[in-house]
């Protein structure tokens, strides 16, 4: 870091918060841009998760399980129990429960990328000619909103499938306040607000937690990088080591919790889609 | 924060991964779990059954043991009684044989003594004659003294 062209703190952070894109993004919303790093890590981790689990599932024994099988079984059973408690239709559970398992494992792995030393993969990327690299896909709003939109689509699908299109539209106008024609617009507005709030908060919650966690890791890394041979900078370095340790340990809780919350909310929203008001 | 096409890519990937999990991960694991649950349930019920069977068998065993002990006691009492009887019979038999043997021996001894006496008596005459000859320094005609000798013989009886 202390070479001829050391970046300033803000340069360092901005660099770390810049995605690897196929082209420069213009404006807040630009549908022609892809975040290549987010896609690479999220698809890579997703495939890794499902292939490892599929390999295990293919060899799963009903006899005495090995340690890895037992560990996966614990997660599967946890998800199956939650799904059974929240989504009451066995037919829907056939898809929703595996989906919840995917969500939990996948998001956990994506969150866990936060625990890798902050500069390792970006530096490796730089050595390979990639100048921007963000390794935590869930710290990308596109990824989390993409998943929460998927959950929204799922909710709409099950609402129509379970209640029938007519009944569902009827409900959009008559719930939650009542069937009086004067209340229709209010009901409809409430329903729309509910759907939007659910979806946005679902994606934003995960994104916010992971983004904030990542940012704190960057600030701690800056403390460590302050080392310049003086007593004050030395103390900062020690502080950086301590803070990094504490935050990383705390982050183990956060990444698990956020993955769990996302999974639970997915189940809850899909479960709500099954219930008539 | 910028929104872009990454969002839709993520959405599609989400469904693909979920579909893959539904197809290849969930069913085999759930099958294994259900099978194991069934195995455990079967094992537990089998253990319960075995336990009650064991209790039943133990009761039967205790019963049998008690019965066996009773019959053994009975048998032993019978055997002891029979043994005592046998011993008694044997003792009586032995006593009888001993008595018989003694009587036989006594009879035989009597006969033998009688025979010895007879023999002696036969010899007495000869001995007496021989003695007398020595005394008289001459031959005695036994025929002459036959009556005397016969009397002697008679006396010795």
Radius of gyration of chain B: 59 Å
Q: How many β-strands of chain B, per DSSP?
A: 1
Number of domains of chain B: 1
Tell me what portion of residues of chain B adopts beta-strand conformation. Answer: under 5%
Q: Termini distance of chain A? A: 60 Å
Helical fraction of chain A: over 70%
Q: So how many helices of chain B?
A: 2
Percent helix of chain B, as a range, is over 70%
Tell me the count of domains of chain A: 1
What is the molecular shape of chain A? Answer: globular
Distance between the termini of chain B: 165 Å
The secondary-structure element order of chain B is EHH
Query: How many H/I helical runs of chain A?
Result: 9
| Class based on secondary structure composition and strand pairing of chain B | mainly alpha
Report on this structure.
The complex is a heterodimer of chains A (277) and B (157). By secondary structure, chain A is mainly α. Chain A has one domain. Helix content of chain A is 73%, strand content 1%. Chain A has nine helices and one strand. In chain A, α6 packs antiparallel against α8 (184-225) and α8 (184-225) packs antiparallel against α9 (231-274). The mean pLDDT of chain A is 89. Chain B is mainly alpha-helical. The chains are: A mainly alpha (277), B mainly alpha (157). At the A-B interface, β1, α2, α3, α4 and α6 of A face β1 and α1 of B.
Set down the secondary structure blueprint:
The complex is a heterodimer of chains A (277) and B (157).
Chain A: H1 9-16, E1 29-30, H2 36-59, H3 67-86, H4 90-112, H5 120-127, H6 141-163, H7 165-174, H8 184-225, H9 231-274
Helix pairs in contact in A: 1-8, 2-4, 3-4, 4-9, 6-7, 6-8, 6-9, 8-9
Chain B: E1 3-4, H1 6-136, H2 146-156
Any key phrases for this structure?
heterodimer, A: 277 residues, mainly alpha, 73% helix, B: 157 residues, 90% helix
């Amino acid at each position: 870091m202390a070479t001829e062209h050391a970046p300033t703190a803000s340069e360092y952070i901005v660099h770390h918060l810049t995605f690897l894109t196929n082209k420069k993004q213009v404006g807040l919303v630009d549908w022609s841009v892809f975040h290549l790093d987010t896609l690479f890590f999220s698809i890579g981790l997703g495939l890794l998760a499902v292939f490892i689990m599929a390999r295990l599932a293919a060899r799963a024994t009903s006899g005495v399980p090995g340690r890895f099988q037992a560990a996966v079984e614990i997660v599967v059973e946890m998800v199956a129990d939650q799904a059974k408690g929240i989504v009451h239709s066995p037919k829907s559970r056939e898809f929703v429960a595996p989906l919840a398992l995917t969500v939990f494992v996948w998001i956990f792995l994506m969150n866990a990328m936060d625990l890798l030393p902050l500069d390792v993969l970006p530096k490796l990327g730089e050595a390979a000619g990639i100048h921007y690299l963000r390794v935590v896909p869930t710290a990308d709003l596109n990824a989390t909103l993409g998943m929460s939109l998927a959950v929204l689509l799922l909710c709409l699908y099950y609402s129509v499938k379970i209640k029938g299109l007519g009944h569902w539209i009827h409900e959009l106008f008559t719930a939650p306040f009542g069937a009086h024609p004067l209340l229709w617009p209010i009901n409809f507005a409430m329903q729309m607000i509910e759907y939007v709030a659910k979806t946005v908060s679902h994606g934003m919650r995960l994104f916010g937690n992971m983004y904030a966690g990542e940012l704190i890791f960057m600030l701690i890394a800056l403390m460590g990088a302050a080392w310049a041979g003086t007593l004050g900078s030395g103390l900062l370095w020690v502080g950086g080591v301590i803070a990094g340790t504490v935050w990383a340990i705390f982050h183990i809780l956060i990444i698990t919790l956020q993955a769990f919350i996302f999974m639970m909310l997915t189940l809850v929203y899909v479960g709500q889609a099954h219930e008539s008001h | 924060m910028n929104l872009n096409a990454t969002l839709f890519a993520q959405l599609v990937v989400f469904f693909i991964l979920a579909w893959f999990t539904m197809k290849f991960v969930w069913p085999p694991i759930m099958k294994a779990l259900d099978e194991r649950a069934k195995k455990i349930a079967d094992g537990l019920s089998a253990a319960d059954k075995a336990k009650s069977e064991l209790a039943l068998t133990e009761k039967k065993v205790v019963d049998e043991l008690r019965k066996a002990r009773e019959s053994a006691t009975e048998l032993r009492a019978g055997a002891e009684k029979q043994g005592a009887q046998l011993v008694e019979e044997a003792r009586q038999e032995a006593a009888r044989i001993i008595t018989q043997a003694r009587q036989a021996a006594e009879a035989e001894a009597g006969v033998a003594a009688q025979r010895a006496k007879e023999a002696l008596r036969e010899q007495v005459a000869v001995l007496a004659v021989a003695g007398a000859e020595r005394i008289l320094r001459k031959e005695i005609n036994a025929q002459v003294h036959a009556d005397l000798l016969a009397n002697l013989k008679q006396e010795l009886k």
